[in-house]
Structure formats: structure tokens, C-alpha cells
Amino acid sequence: MKSNVCRHSLSLFLLFLSAFFFPRAEALTKQRGLNLSVSAVLVFGDSTVDPGNNNYIQTPFRSNFPPYGRDFENQEPTGRFTDGRLATDFIASYVGLKEYVPPYLDPTLSLEELMTGVSFASAGSGFDPLTPRISNTIEIPKQVEYFKEYRKRLELAIGKERTDNLIKKAIFVISAGTNDLVVNYFTLPVRRKSYTISGYQHFLMQQVEQLIQNLWDQGARRIAFVGLPPIGCLPVVITLNSDNAFLQRGCIEELSLVAKDYNSKLQNKLKAIQKNLAHLGSKIFYIDIYGPVTNMIRGYDKFGFEEVTNGCCGSGIVEASFLCNPNSYVCPDASKYVFWDSIHPTEKTYYIVFKALRHVVDMISN
């Protein structure tokens, strides 16, 4: 592994915590009407699926200010780390529930909002318990505790039987892991002293298995687990690992291969768990984003993109979170960019990824 992966200062890398991905929904093709087989969309993970929970905790890793949200409804910066909607928003819209999945920590949520789904995710989090401590964000076991609290709130409002049925028919989406590798393993010395990269991936798989067990114990039966993107193609990763970050902006393939290997382990783990639980009514699916994002980067012109190695905000090579702010230069048309900032995809990218995973939503819904 390139030595400079570990050389760069933690203070710089913390600016880019979080993880990833998706444009605007001109119209969801083959838009569904109300899908009575899906009761809610419930989300756990990191910045790829955090719609604003970090707004309500003491962390510097927020995005509830311009230019974030520039292409969202009313140009509102909600706390999503992109210019518009996330893939989970498109999923909720596609199954006929609502247009946006709100953050659970929003104190103004109505009962209807709670019943149709929320996100417990926190930008900067990960499966490794050490990862969210770096940025003072919400660890995944705490997200599960919030889910248990959410369950109790529903039981008080609609009764245990209706709540049990709602949870059973909900789609659970989990998206995390990028911060564990990019920020934690390859930046801090702690995990590298204890684990080889293969050993660390095995450790993460243990956390994945525990998460599924915890959700299963609370009634989850439909679970979609998102894999990792090609992490070596993130603009900030290119910046920190290129021999010439300004002139040589190609993907760092050895890091993307680490993500590819992780995805293979994740698929094997999920298949084994599904096999053991299938007779109990489980539907546990893997969602591939590595392929769709790689295709967008390699065949960018086919998708109408013009820039694939820089983000739309600022210089596009280092800015994220508070470095992408109201004073930053912003490209005039984010739909020409795969990435919004140096880590996170644009809404257009999220939408293309959503279209690629839509068949999984169909399978898990039926």
C-alpha cells in the first residue's frame, strides 16, 4: 500500500470523514404508486444516508449550510452531504411512501413521518466502534438504540401489533464502511498495529453480523446492505495519494481493490446469513455501488458527465463539510460532476446508482 496513505495528517483527513453517494429526480422512471407491501424505509450508516442527524449533535461534521442542498427543494441545506437528494430518498419515493427520508433526531417529526420511515445514520460513522469516536458522531450501536426508542414511540402511538407488522414490512437500508477504511485504517495507526487489511475486513464483518442480529431481534426481516464504492476514486483520496495531485488525477487502484475485496467478503457474509434465516422469512440483499460508480467514472460521457476526479464545490480536490461553505466557489451545473465535494456524489450520481439498485428494491419489496 502506498506509504503516503498513512503519512498525511489526521487533522486534514478529518475534514473528509463521511462516505458517499446520488441527481435530481426529473421523474423516477416507472414510478410506483402506493406500495402497500412496504410500510417504511429505515436507514442506518454514514454520510451516504444521513439526511441531517448530525445537525442535532455536537460535531463539526455537518452540511446544513450552503452550498449543500443547492438543488434540493427550495434550495434548502438539510444536512445531506450533497446538492440534492440521497439514494434513500429515491427509494422512499419509488415505493410510494414519501419524497424524502427525514433524520430521526428531528424533534418536529409527525407520527406519519415516523411511521413511513426515518434515517438514524450519522456522517462520519462506521462499523468499527473507533471510527465515529474520531469525529464525535453517532456510532452504529447507538443508531440501533435510537431504533429501539423509535419502536417504543410507535408502540405507544399505534400499539404493539401494528408496530410489529410495520417493522416486518419495512425495508432496512445499511450503508457504511468507507470511513472505516479510508479514515480509520489507512490514517490512524491504532488498527494497523493490530490488524492486517484482511484481518481488519474480517473484524468489520463481525460488526456487520452483529448489526444484522440486533436488527433481526427487533423484528427486521427485509435488509439491504450497501457495499463500498471504488474508494480510490474519491477526489480527496486521489489528492492525498497521487504523486502529483494537480496533474495526475487518476483513481488509486490499489485502494479501490481493497474496497472490492471487502465487497466480496460482505457478499459472502450476507449470503451465509440469508441461508440460515431464509426459513424464518428473511430477505437479506447486497447492493452493489462499486460497479455503477466505476461505470460512471470510466464511461462518464455516456452519462453526461464532464468531471469525474474533482468535486463541484471549491477546488474539488479537498473540500468537504465545513470546507465546502457559503464562501466556496461552486460549479454552475452539478449534473456535469460525479462528485459534489471531495468525497460525496452529486444528486445525479445518487440517482443513477438508485436506478442500478432498483431491481433489489423490487425483490426485497415482494
UniProtKB/TrEMBL annotation:
Give the GO molecular function terms.
hydrolase activity, acting on ester bonds
Keyword Signal in the entry? The reply is yes
Annotated signal peptide? 1-27
**Gene3D superfamilies under this entry?**
SGNH hydrolase
Q: Which Pfam families match?
A: Lipase_GDSL
PANTHER family assigned: GDSL ESTERASE/LIPASE EXL3 (PTHR45642), OS09G0540400 PROTEIN (PTHR45642:SF3)
Q: Which family does it belong to?
A: Belongs to the 'GDSL' lipolytic enzyme family.
> What is this protein's name?
GDSL esterase/lipase
Organism whose genome encodes this protein = Vitis rotundifolia
